[in-house]
Amino acid sequence: MKSNEYVAPWEKAFNRVLTPLDDFIHRQTTSGVLLMLCAIAALFIANSQWHDTYLHILELKFTIGVPGFELSKSLHHWINDGLMAIFFFVVGLELKREILVGELANIKQAMLPIIAAIGGMVVPVAVYIMLNPEGPALNGWGIPMATDIAFALGTLALLGSRVPKALLMFLVALAIVDDLGAVIVIALFYTETLNVGALIGVAVLLFVLIALNLGGIRRPLPYMLVGTVLWIAMLKSGVHATLAGVMLAFTIPMRPKYDPERFLDHITRLTEKIRKAYQHEPNIFKNDELRSRVHALEEGALLVQAPAQILERSMHLPSAYLVIPIFALANAGIPIEWSAFGETVTHPVSLGIAGGLVIGKLIGITGTSWLAVKAGITSLPTGVNFNHMIGVGLMGGIGFTMSIFIAELGFSNHPHELLMAKTGILLASLIAGVTGFLWLFFTSKKTA
Q1: Helix (H, G, I), strand (E, B) or coil at 61
Q2: Is residue 387 part of a domain?
Q3: I need a surface site. Which of 51, 232, 397, 410 has the fewest CB within 10 A?
Q4: What would the pLDDT profile of 309-358 be if each residue is shown by its tens digit?
């Protein structure tokens, strides 16, 4: 019997049903590969004859608005202050989901990644401060705190069945807590002079967003419009504008308009109406009633999903495949002076970041996890052992995106230290990724 359904070859890849975790890991893994390619491209350009052109393009001024109310910034600032707000919005949605219904919802289950993440933030900071106790270099203390979830998950996923799925889940939860820590540090310590009037505006806009949520507004548009104004207010306030993305994300509703029972009732009645309309005229182009019923079905399918869930899925694509690669192209372009490379990697800033990310993360994540398990506070996930934890401790030192972002904030007025910081981040991320992969490859057995 010949089927009436036409399926294009590429469509088949999209017909697989993935769990939310599978989908998340798949997207982060692909994003990590793309991020790596863009970082390599930026390094190549910065060390080629196009270096001056590269810097000139990043310093080009772009202005939006009308006379008397306009924003004028370089392309580099638009990327770091504007586009990255989208990245922080997605991070905020992931944080909210994990806290409410994910790995961090059950406190007993969440204790291990929370403790490991705290250790993985505190110890690297201590290592950095030991090597940079004063002066402008001290501004970079927050850089080795961060773990790049896309790079780390991408590296871990390359091991396939050699690592248990529970280890992937642990790394996701750890990186989410890590991101939350980085957001708090940026908000509290990496701010400019505060503008009280703009901060009051931020508070008012946040109140409006909360009112939209409590008032039952489920459409994304009102939130996006108020969120845009919130971003401008944050930009004027002195607190880094990208944090508006996190604040907006936390006000997006996690409860859908229809509960599943009501949706099932709705879809049963609607399906019957679609069947009757189809019997009247099977061609949907000629049948206005059939077309409108199918559209109503589509609307119902959206309303049974939480707005935060829909936005996280739809916004992850531009964040992972557009925003982060552009950020890497704009910020990973480090000119390398091979004749002075020894001095660069032994500079206190480079050494502090590399030591914090590679050694500090390993001790912080693995050491605190071991102490917590031995003290009976928590337990390792099923199928995970301390060889796995050492591997994750090493991979936690991959700190690319958030580390570079904090470096841009901490050393905005110190270009030499910024160059040292970026060199340390790239070197540490490479060492952490390779050693973590090799450790897990040789200590983990492949399972069926």
Answers
A1: strand
A2: yes
A3: 51
A4: 888 888 888 887 888 888 888 888 888 777 777 888 899 999 999 999 99
